[in-house]
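Amino acid chain:
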Amino acid sequence: MIDLFLTFTCLASVAGSLFSPPQEAVISAQNQARILERFADFPDAEKARVVKRIYQAALEADHPMARAAKVLEEDAQLAALEVLDPEPSRHYDPERYAPALQLRTKIETPKSQRWKRLEKHFFRVIPLPVRDRNWQYDYGRNALLHPEKPLSPTEQLQRLMAGQWPEPGRIAALAEAVLDHDAGRDAIADYFQHHYRDRNGRVYRGIRLEDVWGSGRELEVSDVEAIAWLRLIAKENRVTSPINSSLHRRIYGRISDSFADWRDYRLLRQGLAWRLEQPDHELPIWFSSIGDSVNLAWAYVGHDPHRMRNLLKTHPTRQRFFQHLEQALEQPGDQAEAWRNELDLRPQLPVVLANAVRQQLRLEGLFGLGRR
């Protein structure tokens, strides 16, 4: 596939750099320190209310990504989504899927040496995702997962003053909920969002099945998870535990194939969602070379999450999605300038947000004048 971003740049043939140079921080470090000092005197409930008002002001910022965030926050269907605990050790029940093994589940935490050795084995190349401070979208249960360790109002205010959304991952999680259009994948999504168990019954806190299957490393599969896949995904009841060793390779191969298909679906939507929250969010390693094309995809739909959902429904795989985008760029017509303008604005989001935050901080009296 040719470089879509390079293709578009040539087609647009607009003089000057496509991206504006980075600007200095809107709120100086000295002013931020003074604001935080005043903020520290507020009662906790008032801190939360002030941050909420500042966030609302940021959502009103004149920027396509801010408008997209506002659309997501005001969407009635998204507001109705269930918000669940993150459950960092959610796992399959051995008594249900492999009772003959009489496994006793033990939770290994990141403090244990066994957990650390497992992390080193699986995630030497592709790091284990850090999830405890972020909002997440649960593709299997079509729900939001709130952070295990949510940021305090003071931490949220610091992010806002730096031109970032106050709660990391929230806008991306809402976007993923919109972009997840295929309910037929709920079961496989839920399977891989359970946590990894070794053959001795140890479940590793914070390490999901999708993490170990996506690591590219060899892994041992417990009968519990193998039988769960056969029952819940393949809808087969013939095989029981203990599984005959002659069946291992075939069963594990089928699980691997199902994961590859699921990963293609999830990573495309997750990568798009991350780049709607932050203009330069780091992408999964499989997308690291096409970040500009992901940005261009958002410019193509005018940073409209619902238009992106419709595009994904028509072109659901990574290959078909980017092929369509490439074909559209070959004959941009009068859309080239509009796409260029959308791209040109993307890196300005932090400055635009910080300006909106600065204005609201003045209204709140946190610069020393105004409401207080």
